[in-house]
Amino acid sequence: MIRLGGWCAPRLCSAAVPAGRRGAAGGPGLAGGRALRVLVDMDGVLADFEGGFLRKFRARFPDQPFIALEDRRGFWVSEQYGRLRPGLSVSVPAPPRAGPPSRPEPQTPPLRG
């Protein structure tokens, strides 16, 4: 997790983005003055897992309490939701497995001897 605090850290900014374009959408930095949480997976893909989870959770459980993105802390969603109300973490669905299904290991021929 990288907290930019609304400003683009020089070593993280791409040289391909002109300096005048950084933060042009409403204030300094990329987030318009708000703290920004960026999650990059192993392939270098930006992902908004927190926002996606919250949208799906609120759509599926509209009458259940939820934790706003600004108030989320920690890595495990189920821990914080479990503290919000006992038993609520049971309702938190497991995230779908990302990526293609794993391939079986190639079979090596038996040693002859």
From TrEMBL:
Disordered: annotated segments: 86-113
Q: Which SUPFAM superfamilies match?
A: HAD-like
Question: Which spans does this entry mark as compositional bias, Pro residues?
Answer: 93-113
Q: Which superkingdom does the taxonomy of this entry point to?
A: Eukaryota
- Official protein name in the record: NT5M isoform 3
**From what organism does this protein derive?**
Pan troglodytes (Chimpanzee)
